[in-house]
Amino acid sequence: MEENKNLNLSRLTPAEGSVHSGKKRIGRGIGSGKGRTSARGHKGAKSRSGFKNKRNFEGGQMPLQMRIPKRGFKNRNRISYVPLNLERLAEIIEKYKLNGITPDNLTQLGIVSKNDKIKVLANGDAPKGLQITAHAFSATAKQAIEAAGGTVNLA
Question: What is the number of structural domains in the chain?
Answer without folding.
Answer: 1
